[in-house]
Write a structure and sequence with these properties.
GO terms for molecular function: serine-type endopeptidase activity. By secondary structure, the chain is of the alpha+beta class. The chain contains five helices and nine strands, in the order H-H-H-E-H-H-E-E-E-E-E-E-E-E. It has helices spanning 2-16, 22-31, 53-56, 77-86, 91-97; strands spanning 71-72, 124-130, 134-143, 149-156, 161-166, 169-172, 178-187, 197-204, 209-219.
């Protein structure tokens, strides 16, 4: 029953915001999802252990949160095209299968698997991070809330990692509706577990909480 519930919620968001793109609607649903059940305890799986993003994604959908998410992550056509570039496909092959590719599109010269996490998605996945190494991911958010707003970053950091968000404050005005930030992941040398590491980055103010889960897999 999950699919009809999400589909119905997406249709409701679209009826409230007819100009929003599918990626904006997806972002609104993901970033306002909740991680606690109806008795306010962490969501668990069948064996009683705490659920991870591999089990529940961004969380349990909120019925009203997506109607007013504050910020959204817009994913453009070029994001997906550059994802294919970073996967190793060349420009001519991508254009042969992607009819929406602009005529002047070409793969960036610095295309690399390391840039795959830069797709402007409401969550972050970093794979193959080596101990004592860093990986920086960038994201751009669009303000769909009050014109003059300030958001502050908070990070849920897993044990064995350091996570830094730059800048830690995003300021929006009537003229400035988009802001870009970077998230840098540093895997400590003391980390020996091969298990994925889960956490989140949340932008919040007095009214909104815009949460993005992340997962980092490591190479010992």
């Amino acid at each position: 029953m999950a699919c009809p519930h999400v589909s119905g919620l997406a249709a409701t968001v679209k009826s409230w915001h007819p100009t929003w793109s599918p990626s904006a609607i997806r972002s609104a649903i993901m970033t306002t999802a909740i991680q606690r059940n109806n008795v306010h305890a962490p969501i668990t799986i069948m064996n009683g252990s705490r659920a991870t993003p591999y089990d529940i994604g961004a969380g349990e959908i909120s019925l009203f949160g997506p109607l007013s998410p504050g910020l959204v992550y817009e994913t453009r056509t070029t994001d997906y095209l550059q994802f294919l570039c970073n996967m190793g496909y060349n420009t001519s092959l991508i254009k042969s299968v992607a009819s929406t590719a602009p005529s002047n599109f070409s793969c960036p010269s610095n295309s690399s698997p390391d840039l795959i996490p830069d797709v402007n998605y409401p969550s972050i996945a970093v794979s193959g991070l080596k101990a004592n190494k860093t990986r920086t991911v960038k994201r751009t958010v669009t303000n769909v809330g009050e014109a003059n707003s300030i958001y502050y970053a908070t990070v849920e950091t897993p044990i064995g990692m350091q996570v830094q968000v730059v800048p830690k404050l995003l300021r929006f005005t009537k003229a400035v509706k988009k802001q870009t930030f970077q998230v840098t992941f540093f895997l400590l040398t003391t980390t020996t577990s091969q298990e994925p590491l889960f956490g989140s980055v949340t932008w919040s103010n007095w009214k909104y909480k815009v949460r993005s889960p992340f997962v980092v897999t490591n190479i010992a």
